[in-house]
Amino acid sequence: MKALFSLLFVSGAALADDAAMLQCRSLADIASRVKCYDAIPLGAAAPVAVGVAAPAAVPTAQQREQSFGMETVKAPKAAEPEENKSISSSIAGKFDGWSGNELIKLSNGQVWRIVDGSSAVLVPQNNPKVTVERNFIGTFFLKIEGTNNSPKVRRVQ
User: Which has more pLDDT, 19 or 58?
Assistant: First the structure.
């Protein structure tokens, strides 16, 4: 019963008018402050259904791929599905390596920049398959078919 009372008190306080709360907070006299807080009507905001979570929009696989690497959040969530940690595509056309700060355009339209200053010369390939993988701290690496090197990249488009 005590927990239910606490829950109702907290949820009611969350619905209180913010401007009135700020006005009451500015009062120096304790008795006046308490009267002010007591006068604030609870439930002025839209009612919230207790125990009912709002449905979250689930992005499609295509939407996840299009936005991959453009997130503002640095590290992925711990419970993030495996499909959100990498994408696969290919580099359009002939590819014979990279150098620091170079732009790499993938066939899915994404553009990634080499950001670690690395470089490599490869045997020329046509449309090599690539995977962009996000590690556990949110850094992206470009894994290119036919090489063990994986430059650090950042999506620019």
Answer: 19
Position 113, amino acid: R
| Inter-helix orientation angle 18-25/30-39, to 10° | 170
Could you tell me if 123 and 96 are in contact, meaning their C-beta atoms sit under 8 angstroms apart? yes
DSSP 76: -
pTM over 0.70: no
In angstroms, the CA 69 to CA 34 distance is 50
Element housing 37 (H / E): helix 30-39
Nearest of 87, 68, 91 to residue 131 by alpha carbon: 87
Please write the tens of the pLDDT for every residue from 51-82: 545 555 666 777 777 777 776 545 545 555 55
